[in-house]
Amino acid sequence: FTQIPSQSDLFSWDTVGEALLSASFGVLFERLADPLLGVFFGEQNLDQTLLDKLNTVLLSVNAVLSDAEEKQITNLAVKKWVNELKDAAYHADDLRFFPQNLSCEDSEARVKLGKNIEPRLKKIVERLESLANQRDILNLKESASGKPPPIIPSTSLVDESEVFGRDKDKEELIKNLLDDNSQDKGIPVIAIVGIGGVGKTTLAQLVYNDTRVKKHFRSRAWAYVSEQFDVFKVTRTIFESVTSMHCNDTQLDVLQVKLKKRLMRKRFLLVLDDTWNENFIFWDLLSRPLKAGAYGSRVIVTTRNQSVASLMRPVFTHRLLHLSYEECWSLFAKHAFSASNPDEYPTLKGISEEIVKKCAGLPLAAKTLGGMLHSKVEAVEWRRILNSEIWDLPNDKSSILPALRLSYLHLPPHLKQCFAYCSIFPKGYEIEKGKLVLLWMAEGFLQQPNRMDSMEEVGDEYFQELLSRSFFQQSSSCKSSFVMHDLINDLAQFASGEFCSKFENGKLHGISEKARHFAFLMDQLDGPEKFVALSEVKFLRTFLLLRSANPGRCSASCKVVSDEWLPTMKHLRVLSFSCPTLTKLPDSLGQLKHLRYLDFSETAISKLPSSICSLCNLQTLLLSSCTKLTELPANIGNLINLRHLDVSETNLTNMPPGLGELKSLQVLTDFVVNRDSESNISELGKLSHLRILSILKLENVVSAEAASEANLKSMNHLRELVFEWTSDSRHVQNETEEVLDHLRPNENLKKLTIENYCGTRFPNWLGDAIFSNMVILRLNKCKNCTSLPPLGQLSSLQGLFITKMEGLERLDSEFYGHSGVKPFRSLKTLSFEELPRWTHWMPSAHEGEDFPSLQELRIKECPNFIGNLPKLPCSPINLVISPCQKFQALTDHKEVQEEKSLDEDKSLLAKPRFRPRMAKRGRRGT
Hints:
Layout: H1 7-11, H2 18-32, H3 35-43, H4 49-62, H5 65-71, H6 76-94, H7 99-102, H8 107-133, H9 167-178, E1 189-193, H10 200-208, H11 211-216, E2 219-226, H12 231-243, H13 252-263, E3 268-275, H14 280-287, E4 298-303, H15 306-311, E5 316-319, H16 325-336, H17 346-359, H18 363-372, H19 379-386, H20 400-409, H21 413-421, E6 431-432, H22 433-443, H23 455-468, E7 473-474, E8 481-483, H24 486-496, E9 500-504, E10 507-509, E11 517-521, E12 542-546, H25 555-565, E13 574-577, E14 597-599, E15 620-622, E16 644-646, E17 667-672, E18 692-696, H26 704-708, E19 720-724, H27 733-741, E20 751-755, E21 776-780, E22 799-803, E23 810-811, H28 813-816, E24 829-833, E25 840-841, E26 856-860, E27 877-881, E28 900-904
Parallel strand pairs: 1-4, 1-5, 2-3, 3-4, 9-11, 11-12, 12-13, 13-14, 14-15, 15-16, 16-17, 17-18, 18-19, 19-20, 20-21, 21-22, 22-24, 23-25, 24-26, 26-27
Antiparallel strand pairs: 6-8, 7-8, 9-10, 27-28
Helix pairs in contact: 2-4, 2-6, 2-21, 4-8, 5-6, 6-8, 9-10, 12-13, 12-14, 16-17, 16-18, 17-19, 21-24, 22-23
């Protein structure tokens, strides 16, 4: 259904799994080079030659990894050697003599550690040396790189009878191809982006051979680009395709001059299929002769990588999605049953329906599996395919894994291990991006070459890179969650091998004594017997209990895991155990010295054991929705590496002293202000790296001077901020206004929420044009404020949400500001909800539209609002109206009784077309 996989795709397996080793070795080399390590060995009188031996043996085995990774596919002995090597690398990394671990150990602990380290390190070195000595026996070669087999390129020809479900995609592309309204000065590029095997080449072939396209373009050319982007070869292919002549030129300049003459003032269509190049210079060089073409010429590029498409500055990008189940089955049946009627084979048809589900809408999978079963008539053979993993299918007959694996092979090592780690998530699971980045950070996957970027920013870049390469797809139910295509999940499982395991569909996948990462869904936690197999896994690093719609009966398992199994897991780095029946944590938790990530969100715990404060490596502590939690440990300030502390939706009454010692803290939700002098808002002034902060019970800030001590104005990294007073508190208005005045944040702030503020006016800094980075502003339950500040002066504001402001009666010129600059020039979403006294909304004094970028306007439950609307943009907007009995602008005195939405331009507002809006819900993930 897509281009024919190249022979190199089918047989060149170098680097699969190598990333897990090369990335691990890179970390080990970096740590071994740390001078503090030598200092530790010297002060403890340890054998420093062991460090030299470890470094030498790592270099020795690293030299043959490429050859080993290629041979392990067909040689079980080599495969075993590679797995042993990975396991040894994990053991070396488990040693706690590295400087970042030593920094939080006292002198007595360092002496004890030194005595234990030497024999363990000696054992690891001996194991690695034994593996290195097997290189010759296994015939492993250094830097093996044989001549790559010839590549079979795609062509422009297509059998349309084998194509299903692409009519809409085809028509959308043709519409953009034939549109002559492009203002692009160069040759407009149209990109088709999608995962391997989804049918990008086939779609390009359909468009290329369409009668309308042939008629519209005077010249057409098809060039298969592939991984090795050779400007000369591609240029020659284009020339030969345009001229139908063989070309013997050997100089690029001569060839490009000839091509330019051939294309001069001709409207042409060029398809560049299977493009991988991310070097703009190559694309710029290739495109020079193309600029001679006539107005209306087009280039179609197919790629798996959004970054490649973006490099070419496309005027339109078409993200190609998978087929529906029905379309996928039709394609499968076309190849499996050929001209036969599937109904004549009821048993095979039933099995085929399950096989098609495994294809998960990927055309290449449907075509490949259908072709493999074409000559098979025995049900046992069909069931064997149904029950096989994609990597168990014969290499010479299946192109599914090779096609997908090609995307994996193009990843740098640090991204390969991040991707492989994702195999612990069940198929279809919605992964929350923010938490995934924290997990990667805890596992040590994030490299920080530029100290200006935080680890979280590095992780976000990693994720965006994987997303752009189609390894993730955005969830339809939540913008911050993502899913992996089922076959991409299979690819991750293949890459991670026996080191990642999971419970899925009631089955334990891939558990072995070498497993390091383990996950399962909460609704499968229905009995402690499921953890019997885990008792043999001694070096587990990750234990993830994943939330699901149905938490299941997990009380018995909770107790067994927390009291009996957990204390034995001395190497855990990640522990997520959000079991709602969990009421108490064992004191032994403090013995898990490697822990970097702890998630006990949505549990019934009322306090944390004090021993948790000895976890000096801890980076993330998530306790959200622990509604019975009333206090944090007194010595929490000892967690000097803590970066994320989430205590939102708990019942904390105050914060312990010493929070100001958490100098690495990036995220703090929620800081509960207490009147007591030992726990006050001044602690925040020491946390200069905060990026996300919410402050609760601000009524307990006793003076403006105390508010100033929070020093929010100097927090250059702060991006999201919440100010919240208790709704039923009786605080003095004047004091409240002064407090908010002195809580002025840094102008780099992007998101601000103010809730339950009881002052009658907002501070002067709110609406100040200096806050040019402000993107989202929410004002909620500010019941005494009668007007809004000059928010129109916030040049980057995209979302403004005003809710439950009982005192607000009208919006006038003050709302827009008096700076002379066009107000609200970036605002996309504007929402007014539950404003019982609001009556009038005056337009601005500026000429033209008041909200030029507005895309959505919501007015809900504003019973006294009588209009009129301001000068809205002429572009299509989404207008949502909820019961506003006196609102006349749209209905001419006719009552609007229910929420309605409108997608029309301004000229049609008098006769709206209403459509119901549907809310989608999905299974939320970690």
